[in-house]
Design brief:
Layout: H1 2-14, H2 24-36, H3 46-57, E1 60-61, H4 67-70, H5 78-91, H6 108-114, E2 118-119, E3 133-143, E4 165-174, E5 178-186, E6 193-195, E7 200-202, E8 205-215, E9 218-229, E10 258-261, E11 271-280, E12 283-292, E13 296-303, E14 306-314, H7 323-326, E15 334-344, E16 348-363, E17 377-391, E18 394-403, E19 408-417, E20 422-431, E21 452-462, E22 467-478, E23 489-502, E24 506-520, E25 529-546, E26 549-561, E27 566-580, E28 583-594, E29 601-602, E30 616-617, E31 620-633, E32 636-647, E33 664-675
Parallel strand pairs: 1-2, 14-16
Antiparallel strand pairs: 3-4, 3-33, 4-5, 5-8, 6-7, 8-9, 9-10, 9-11, 11-12, 12-15, 13-14, 15-16, 16-17, 17-18, 18-19, 19-20, 20-21, 21-22, 22-23, 23-24, 24-25, 25-26, 26-27, 27-28, 28-31, 29-30, 31-32, 32-33
Length: 676
């Protein structure tokens, strides 16, 4: 009876107009901006948006949802997930979505996000049921000004293709067992051409996969392009990963997601072949096999009439616009095989991952000193073991790996929920300079998991329903040389953030971030190195002034200090978003000024559906854009973005083939999405 009375009161509160502005895209954007966007300077959010969009279209039943399902939400802590499962186990099925508020760690703000992704099925069928659905998405994009790369009339110099970017996405879901996804992509400057000798068949990049779920003991079967995420990512890391930023607790750990379909437009870092996940009581077995042809820089030498081919580096940009870039296309062959075996119960998860890689040609890096310990040869093998364990309100996670070169990688961390309002995190990592994990993607300062030691500490406190505090510090060092670093170096990073919000009416945050490191003074002398400090102050206020109108103001101020000089930069932006029936307009005006590229500032701006833009600003200028979203006809939407950047301190924009002989740069993006 008490539970029903409490639920009734919660329903009355939920009926207030505070929720009237929430819809799918605003909720997903809110997740991105509040929980994700203060991460690395250029976060990869495509996989997160795809996951959130898929769940929104097919909400999860909170009475049958599993721990693995809950771990897909990047903003839920381990203690919140455990509290959810414990509450459902104790009190039985939920009667309403709004009942989530009585679970420790779940408040009205979190409910505003989750209610778009959860549902309660009226039938008694176990598991979630997905209706047949799908979409076709067409995207067109180009820079309206003429760039230098398109100014040449012959095929030997400049960009060979048109300045248009074209992308086609197709996704189809059939019940809860079958999912198909295909992506066709052409970047600006690339050609649509039939070129079998370079493995191009019209579009420059084609990706597809078929996913099959729940066939007896087969949990998942993936044919085509897929990704893997085991343990903490030291051997096989894929999918979305937060990194360091304003989310100071969840950013330290990776979720053991296992086998996942690949849908990103990034042309490197995925697997292409066959993989399956077998459920054997409390054990899971995931064997996988992959074969593809990555781009690479190839060197051919001839000695005594004998020709030898080697590879100096993998070319990961995926761009094939010029003859030089096309010459790197599909130059290497890569075969990968491996398996993961994992065990899990209520409090413990443990696993072993093995991954073997075989290349057609040997890797022989350049003779530069900093590359002395980079991967060499044509094969690599990595094996790791990972453990996560929950004890009361403590969550421990770790992974230890060793590569064929006998280099080791170790990561160990913990998350502690001291109360429903205070969380702590701690992570230690140690990656040998000889540790070679070609598919690893774990917690680190640099992109590669080698030549790094570090200790991270995070703190988060929810003072009350309005105030939140986030803090972190990270101390790291590189025992050996790195690119543009003269020798063993070290650095440290700090971040502090305070946020204030009043239920959908007003929100405000202030953030300070500082980083101390060593860099090459490239603009002064390529042989000089110096310690430097970068500080960033950022403030943002969002106001829901009237129904269907949101106003947002953001300011960021950067200071970069070297021993002999200091540079400063700032950006001020004003956003407005208005919605009338099914038409939505989003606009921004931003003013920026920095002394050079070193004092650049970053600011996220909204883009088209499932697209992201996180640009840097340097120099002096004005940036503005407008996005129109409206229905064309039944189940078909149109989105158009027009952006204009005017520089006040130059008459040329960009360099090389990207150069524009003007102080103005305009971008046009058009997206049509049709659901079926």
């Amino acid at each position: 009876m008490i539970r029903k009375i409490l639920l009734y009161l919660l329903l009355l509160i939920a009926a207030t107009p505070a929720f009237t502005q929430s819809d799918k895209e605003h909720s997903i954007d809110k997740i991105l901006e509040e929980y994700i966007l203060q991460q690395a300077e250029n976060p990869d959010l495509e996989m997160l948006y795809e996951t959130m969009q898929s769940i929104y279209e097919n909400p999860l039943d909170i009475n049958t949802i599993t721990k693995e399902d809950l771990e897909q939400f990047a903003f839920l802590t381990p203690s919140q997930i455990d509290n959810f499962l414990a509450y459902r186990s104790t009190y039985g099925p939920f009667l309403s979505i709004y009942e989530l508020q009585v679970i420790p760690g779940f408040d009205i703000e979190l409910l505003q996000l989750l209610k778009h992704f959860f549902t309660i099925k009226k039938n008694k069928i176990s598991g979630s049921h997905i209706e047949n659905s799908g979409y076709v998405m067409l995207i067109y994009q180009r820079v309206l000004e003429k760039q230098k790369g398109y100014s040449y009339d012959n095929d030997s110099t400049g960009y060979l293709g048109s300045p248009d970017q074209l992308q086609i996405r197709i996704k189809k879901l059939i019940s809860d067992k079958y999912r198909f996804h295909m992506l066709l992509d052409k970047d600006p400057g690339e050609r649509i051409i039939w070129m079998p000798e370079k493995h191009q068949y019209l579009f420059d990049f084609i990706s597809a996969n078929l996913s099959i779920y729940r066939l007896g003991k087969i949990n998942r079967l993936m044919i085509g392009d897929y990704q893997l995420q085991f343990g903490q990512g030291l051997t096989a890391g894929g999918g979305f990963f937060l990194g360091k930023g304003s989310e100071t607790i969840l950013s330290v750990r990776r979720v053991h997601s296992g086998l996942m379909p690949y849908s990103s437009s990034s042309e490197y870092g995925f697997y292409r072949g066959l993989a399956l996940e077998l459920q054997l009581q409390k054990f899971k077995l995931t064997p996988f096999i992959s074969f593809q042809r990555p781009d690479a820089t190839q060197v051919i030498t001839t000695i005594n009439s004998k020709t030898d081919t080697s590879i100096t580096s993998i070319y990961t940009s995926g761009l094939h616009r010029t003859q030089n870039e096309i010459s790197k296309r599909k130059n290497q062959s890569e075969f990968i095989s491996g398996t993961n075996v994992s065990y899990s119960n209520q409090d413990l998860q443990a696993g072993v991952t093995m991954l073997y890689t075989k290349f057609k040609y040997d890797f022989i890096p350049s003779d530069k000193y900093y590359q002395r310990y980079q991967f060499k040869g044509n094969s690599n093998f990595v094996i790791s073991t990972d453990i996560t364990y929950r004890w009361n309100n403590l969550y421990f996670f770790s992974e230890a790996a060793i590569s064929q070169s006998k280099g080791k990688g170790i990561l160990a961390g913990a998350i502690a929920s001291l109360s429903s309002h205070i969380d702590l995190s701690l992570v230690y990592r140690n990656y040998d300079k000889t540790f070679h994990s070609l598919r690893g993607k774990g917690f680190s300062e640099s992109a590669e998991l080698n030549n790094e030691k570090g200790l991270y500490m995070g703190f988060k406190a929810k003072i009350n329903s309005k105030w939140n505090v986030f803090l972190y510090s990270d101390f790291y060092k590189f025992p050996w040389m790195k690119y543009k670093l003269p020798g063993p170096t070290q650095g440290r990073e700090y971040m502090g953030r305070i946020s204030y919000s009043i239920r959908k009416k007003f929100s405000l945050y202030g953030q300070y971030k500082s980083k101390y490191s060593t860099a090459m003074l490239s603009e002064i002398n390529s042989t000089q190195f110096s310690n430097w400090k970068r500080e960033l102050f950022q403030v943002q206020a969002e106001i829901l002034s009237v129904p269907n109108l949101i106003l947002k103001s953001t300011g960021a101020y950067a200071i970069v200090s070297f021993p002999s000089y200091t540079e400063k930069g700032f950006i001020l932006s004003q956003d407005a978003e208005v919605k009338y029936r099914k038409v939505r307009l989003t606009a921004r005006v931003a003013l920026f000024e920095t002394e050079s590229y070193d004092s650049r500032v970053y600011l996220y701006e909204k883009d088209l559906y499932m697209s992201f833009y996180f640009p840097s600003y340097s120099g002096t200028g004005i940036r503005n854009y407008i996005i129109l979203q409206m229905p064309l006809f039944h189940k078909t939407d149109l989105r158009i973005k027009f952006a204009r950047t005017r520089y006040l301190d130059r008459e040329l924009i960009g360099s090389g083939y990207e150069e524009i002989q003007s102080s103005v740069k305009r971008d046009l993006k058009i997206q049509i999405t049709s659901k079926f």
